[in-house]
Amino acid sequence: MKRHALQNTPASPVDTVTVELGDRSYPIVIGTGVLEEVGPRLGALVPGRSAAIISNPTVEKLYLNRVVGSLAAAGFHTTSVAIPDGETHKNLAWLTFIYDRLLDARMDRTSTLLALGGGVIGDLAGFAAGTFLRGVPFVQLPTTLLAQVDSSVGGKTGVNHPAGKNLIGVFYQPQLVLIDVETLRTLPRRELVAGLAEVIKYAVILDAELFVLVEENLGRILALDTELLRHIILRCCALKAMVVQRDERESDYRSILNFGHTLGHAIESLTEYTRYLHGEAVAIGMAFAARMSRSQGYCKDETVHRIVGLLKRAGLPVEVPQELAGASLGLAIEGDKKVARGKVKFVCLEDLGRTRFVHFTGQEVAEFVARVRQGTS
Fold this sequence. Notes:
Distance between the termini: 39 Å
Radius of gyration: 20 Å
Number of domains: 2
Strand order of the largest sheet: 1-2-9-6-5-3-4
CATH topology of the largest domain: Rossmann fold
Strand content: 15-25%
CATH class of the largest domain: Alpha Beta
Oligomer: single chain
Shape: globular
C-alpha cells in the first residue's frame, strides 16, 4: 500500500488504490459517476467482448441500463442475470442458476462476469467467475457501503451452507473494482448503517485516527456527505489492500479482519440470515469482542465504552439476542470455517488500532456470552 493513500488529502475526481499482488494486481477506482466508465476501463483490461452482469432486481432497476450502455458503447455484448435479494439466496442452488444462464448465453473463457450490487452478489458472482470454465475475468461494481469498503476487495468469494456461512468458496481476485459513491444515495438507511459497521471495524483494528474521524463526523456520514464518504471509502480500501498484500489467503495476519465476525457469523446462521443484516450481526460481534477483551485484561474500559457507544450512536445493535445461548451458540461458532483443532482464532483488542489473536473453543465463547448477560463479566 502506498502511504499517500491514507493521508488526509483533498479527494481528486477519481481516486485509485492498487492491490499489489504481482500478475494478479488490480486497481480499486473510487469516484462519483464512474459507473459510466466501466465499458472503456474493462475494454482496456480484457481481450474478449462478451460480459454477464450478475445483479438483483432492485439494483437492476436502478443501474443496469447505465452499465449495459457503457459496455455496449465499448463494443461488449452483454447478458444479465438477476438473483433475488438477500443472504438466503447465497447458496449452491442459485450458483447453479448462474452457471445455467452463462452456458445458455454461450459465455467462454474470454467472457467477463460483473457483480453489480452488494456483498451477496459479489460473493456469488466472484465464486461463479472463479469456477466457470476454471476461471473467467471478473469485475466488482459494489453499490452498498459494506461492499465498497470491504467485501468487493480481497478476492474472497463463496456461498453459504446450512452448517455455516461462506463454507464453500475460493480466493479469486477481480480484474477491477469500480466504486461509484453516488450509488449510496439510493441505498436504504438500514443498509447504509449496516455498512458503517465495517467502516468502524477497520477503524477499531487498524486506524485510531479513522475511528476519531467517524466519531466526530457521524452525522455527516449518515447525511451522505459525498466527499467525506469518498475519503472514508478510500481509506478503508487502502487498509484492506495493505492486509491482503501481506496475507492474501488468510494464512495468518488477514484473520485480523475477522474482528466481530466469529460471533457475527454464528448469529447470522442461527437466525437463518433473516433477522440481521451482515453488518448488524458484525456490530454485535464487535461489541462482544471488545467486552471479552476487557474481561481478559487486554484493553481498558474507556476503549470498550467508545466502541460500544459509537455502534449505538450509529444505530447498530450491540447485544447478543437472548434466545441465542448455550450449546447451540457454541456449536455454531465451532462450525466456523476458520476453526482449527477445535478452537477458533478470536480477534481481541489491546487498544484502538492494536489487536491480538486468542484461541477459544466455541463453548468457551458461549459461556462468556452467558456471563456478560448475567453481569459477571
